């Protein structure tokens, strides 16, 4: 079942922007042999928690990055790229477009990117949170199925 230290480690891994649930679910199930359902649920919840954190810290992130020239350039480049990738989904499908963008289990399309996209596109935070949460749940199910080999059955 895994000890508390292992679960905490998995929870923290989930909070890393480049990893999120796409890396945490396989790590929990394949490396630590944690129960599939428990792992998926805990990791999905942890990943959903990222959205309000980004919303709350958005102004602080912008302030800190603006004070360090190199980081400011990197953030502007990242946000510009994110805007180009997410805007078509949101423009065409709105709420559902953001959900689809987050649900795609590829690097750069998770909860962090979804929350940042919602911020830079000026979306309503409540609707964006629900959309991102649904996308995270979908991505979690997809990654769990891929990790366990369940998709091979189809």
Description:
With 154 residues, the protein is an all-alpha fold. It has one domain (4-153). Helices cover 79% and strands 0% of the residues. The chain is built from 8 helices and no strands. The chain has helices spanning 4-14, 20-31, 36-48, 50-67, 69-93, 95-103, 111-120, 125-148. Helix 5 crosses helix 7, helix 6 packs antiparallel against helix 7 (111-120) and helix 6 packs parallel to helix 8. The chain starts with a helix and ends in a 6-residue tail after the last helix. Pfam families: Sm_multidrug_ex (PF06695). Keywords: Membrane, Transmembrane, Transmembrane helix. The chain crosses the membrane at residues 6-29, 41-65, 93-116, 128-151.
Mean pLDDT: 91
- pLDDT under 50 segments (min length 5)? none
> How many structural domains in the coordinates?
1
Query: How many β-strand stretches?
Result: 0
State the helix count. Answer: 8
Biggest pleated-sheet summary: none
Structural Rg:
16 Å
Broad shape: globular
Termini separation (Å)? 29 Å
In sequence order, what are the helices and strands, one letter per element?
A: HHHHHHHH
As a percent range, the share of helical residues equals: over 70%
**Strand residue content:** under 5%
By secondary-structure content and strand pairing, the structural class works out as: mainly alpha
Keywords: Membrane, Transmembrane, Transmembrane helix
